[in-house]
């Protein structure tokens, strides 16, 4: 009787478990399936953009269609492509890209260093937070473009003023996310580790870092865009090079197509920088232990 039962169980398990053939039929190439999903998602995301560009191009009188959009005011996609081609073939834009990138990354470095440091200090100093946070809120409410002339007056039109304005623009997102992340740490978990005799470094590695790292990465992603905006604003107010300077020059000669071309370059740079931060986020979040994991 027991032999029959064992044989029946083995047959049932083999029937329930998927065979190699069935597995190959159901998902013969998971990597290919993932790429197909990504391509479909990318096509869905790009469809509205393609439709807008097509209507825009046709509306400016392309293919002898009656014009209902004035290209002198809003530009024309085909002309924007020509401007992009001219900028890159001449090579003049690469120096401007490098200058803006240098300013934005320098400002981001200062903002991340200062924002994380101040966030940690105030999170562990309630009395200091009560004194400092109102001033932080006041400075955060000030428009960056209104502060740009002061930075130009104080530090000139060189690299330093652009870096400091980019740092000021990027400082607040990383500070607030770090501060809020530290405030959100489970106090009961901290108490439990203290009872178990965990030292300061063990607390930092097993509780603080896993709890706050996602907040910090989110703050860096936001600060990255703000640093780029801060650098552009500073270049727009006073500069002799950089993408903000090119944009101001295009505006001065009423070259709408060139202005759009520069904005396209900025958008591409922003996308690639965001991809870089996402890759960093994926790596860091995969590395980190779960909060409280021993």
Q: With helices defined by DSSP (H or I, 4 residues minimum), what is the helix count?
A: 13
The quaternary structure here is single chain
Order of helices and strands, N to C? Answer: HHHHHHHHHHHHH
Reported CATH architecture of the largest domain: Orthogonal Bundle
Subcellular location: Cell membrane
Keywords: Cell membrane, Membrane, Transmembrane, Transmembrane helix, Transport
Main location: membrane
Membrane topology: Multi-pass membrane protein
What's a concise summary of this model?
The protein has 13 helices and no strands.
Descriptive report:
The protein has 294 residues and is an all-alpha fold. It folds into two domains: 30-69; 77-287, Orthogonal Bundle (MetI-like fold). 83% of the residues lie in helices and 0% in strands. It has 13 helices and no strands.
Secondary-structure topology with pairs:
Layout: H1 2-16, H2 20-26, H3 30-59, H4 71-74, H5 77-90, H6 92-123, H7 126-141, H8 144-155, H9 159-183, H10 187-195, H11 200-237, H12 243-252, H13 256-287
Helix pairs in contact: 5-13, 6-9, 6-11, 6-12, 8-9, 8-11, 9-11, 11-12, 11-13, 12-13
Which terms would index this structure?
MetI-like fold, 294 residues, MetI-like, 13 helices, globular, 83% helix, disordered N terminus, mainly alpha, cell membrane
């Amino acid at each position: 009787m027991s032999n029959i039962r064992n044989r029946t169980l083995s047959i049932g398990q083999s029937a329930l478990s998927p065979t190699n053939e069935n597995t190959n039929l159901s998902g013969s190439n998971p990597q290919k399936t993932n790429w197909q999903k990504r391509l479909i998602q990318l096509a869905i995301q790009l469809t509205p953009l393609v439709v807008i560009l097509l209507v825009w191009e046709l509306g400016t009188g392309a293919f002898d269609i009656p014009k209902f959009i004035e290209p002198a005011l809003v530009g024309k996609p085909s002309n924007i492509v020509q401007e992009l081609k001219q900028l890159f073939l001449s090579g003049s834009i690469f120096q401007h890209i490098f200058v803006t990138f240098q300013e934005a990354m320098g400002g981001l470095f200062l903002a991340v260093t200062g924002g994380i440091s101040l966030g940690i200090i105030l999170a562990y100093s309630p009395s200091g937070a009560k004194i400092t946070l109102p001033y932080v809120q006041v400075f955060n409410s000030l428009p960056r473009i209104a502060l740009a002339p002061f930075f130009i007056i104080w530090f000139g039109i060189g690299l330093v003023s652009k870096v400091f304005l980019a740092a000021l623009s990027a400082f607040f997102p990383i500070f607030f996310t770090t501060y809020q992340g530290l405030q959100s740490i489970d106090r009961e978990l901290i108490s439990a580790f203290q009872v178990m005799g965990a030292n300061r470094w063990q607390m930092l590695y097993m509780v603080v870092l896993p709890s706050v790292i996602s907040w910090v990465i989110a703050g860096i992603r936001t600060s990255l865009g703000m640093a780029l905006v801060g650098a552009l604003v500073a270049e727009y107010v006073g500069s002799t090079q950089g993408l903000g300077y090119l944009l101001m020059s295009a505006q001065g000669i009423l070259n709408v197509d060139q202005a759009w071309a520069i904005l396209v370059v900025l958008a591409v740079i922003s996308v690639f920088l965001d991809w870089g931060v996402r890759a960093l986020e994926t790596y860091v979040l995969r590395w980190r232990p779960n909060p409280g994991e021993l």
